[in-house]
Structures are given as structure tokens and as C-alpha cells.
Amino acid sequence: MAKHILVVDDDALMRRSITFKLEQAGYRTSSAGSAEDALVLARQDQPDLVLLDIGLPGMDGLDALRQFQQEIANVPVIFVTARRRELDTILGLELGADAYITKPFNPDVLLANIKSVLRRTANQPAAEPASTRPDPIQVGDLIIDPGAHTVSVAGRGLDLPAREFAVLHTLAQEAGYVVVMDDLLTRVWGEEFLGEPQVVYVHIRWLREKIEPDPQHPQRLLTVRGVGYKLVPYFEIKD
Questions:
Q1: Partner of 49 at 20 to 30 A CA spacing, among 43, 107, 118, 206?
Q2: What is the pLDDT, as a whole number, of residue 87?
């Protein structure tokens, strides 16, 4: 069955051009000129992937991404936008977008990204039976339970977005050892993100704000300059 791709862009000509290329490539498409309309369509006919512009009227693409994540489980999103600011790229990836393409773009590049994202999401492992789920990992006073998808530090529960959890879990699996930047990118984001270290920097900063007593002087999540990061045991001393 053909994969269903939802194209969200307020430029009608751009929508027609993209959907034409996608249909030529064998995909089934639907399209919307606003995030609000796109969410209505997605609830009625769940897409396999969303191509989402950032500069939309009303709800913008970044807010729409959050809404898609809340309402439609596991749908991958690729940003297709005229915005070129690095901050938008970082924020979009940080919020969980699977790729980011700026206009004008080569249609072959867009199709290659779509194939890559669909292949990666199709290869994600199914939920494991309870008997084979991994045990919690403890690193000092930090406890990561991948089966329950929970994290606590010094007895305090944390609510981590999926990508932050994946970064922390990857580091916890190698606790005490350095995880090099490229390995972290590949294991959390996929090989398509090699050469994009800024997404790691952002997630490390956000994690430190949540797990460190003093994020400016980290004691748990350490930088090994020019190499990568490592997670080490630490116990917060309480008065």
C-alpha cells in the first residue's frame, strides 16, 4: 500500500508542486494550507509522514509539530521551509522533527529525505514483551528505566521529551565511558544527522538544566572536549 504523506504549506503553488512530485514517486498525498486544517485531515486519515512548513498563518509549524506529537503517535515530520536561521533548525530538531529542508530545494533531495525517514521509522523495533524489557540503569543517584520510559534524579522524577530521554539512555548505557559525537548522533538521530553536532549541543544543555545541581558546572554529564560526552556517577548531598 502506498505511503500517505500530508503536505502542509500556505503556498498553494508549492503544495501542488510537492504533491505532484510525490504522486509521481508513488506516494498517496493530501494537503492543507494551515496547521489547523492539517490536524483535522490527520485525525480523519492518519499520514505516514508530514511535510510541514514553519511559517504558517495562525498556528506556526513549531506549534503544529507539538500538536502532531500529542495527537498522532509516532508520525515522522520533515520541516520544509524558507526560513534559514540556524536557530529554527536547532529548535525544530530539538522539538522532534526528523529532518529539515530549506526552500528552494532539489526535489530529489526531498524524496531522498522522505525515503530515509520512512525507512528509519519502519525499522524501529516493536514493543518488547514485558519479560524481555531492559532493566533500569542506575548511575549514581540517576535512575533511567527504559521499559517504563522514566527518569529520576536524587529521588525526583523528571519528565523528558523522547529525544532527551534517548540521549540520556545512550550515555547511561556507556556510563563512565566517553560516547563520541558521531556515535551519539547515529544512535539517537540516525546517520542522516552526521555533521549536525548542534542538535547534540542543544540536548546536552537541556539535560544539564534538569539533572545537574549547577548546569554551568556539570557533575554528572561531562564534556570530553573534541571527543564527546560521558555520564558519571554523582550523589547530590542534601542538607
A1: 206
A2: 46
Does 128 reside within a domain?
Answer: no
Dist. CA 147–CA 224, nearest whole Å: 29
* 204 in a structural domain: yes
Which ranges of 45-174 does DSSP label H, i.e. alpha helix?
Answer: 61-71, 86-94, 107-122, 162-173
Instruction: Let me know if 184 is exposed, middle or buried by CB neighbors in 10 A (0-12, 13-18, 19+).
Output: buried
Q: Are 6 and 42 in contact (CB under 8 A)?
A: yes
- For residue 180, the domain's CATH number is 1.10.10.10
Answer whether 0.90 is exceeded by the pTM.
Answer: no
Contacts of 202 (CB under 8 A, 6+ apart): 90, 93, 94
Q: Measured between alpha carbons, how far is 88 from 95 in angstroms, rounded to an integer? A: 10
Give the domain-ending residue among 96, 122, 148.
Answer: 122
Q: Where does a domain end: 122, 156, 175?
A: 122
CA 136 to chain centre: 23
Supply the range of the domain harboring residue 9.
4-122
pLDDT digits (tens, 9 = 90+) for 71-94: 776 788 888 877 555 445 555 555
pLDDT tens column, 115-145: 888 887 775 554 444 445 678 999 999 999 9
Q: How many CB atoms lie within 10 A of CB 143?
A: 17
CATH classification of the domain holding 14: 3.40.50.2300
Tell whether 80 and 147 lie within a shared domain. Answer: no
From residue 210, give the alpha-carbon distance in Å to each of 165, 206, 218. Answer: 11, 7, 11
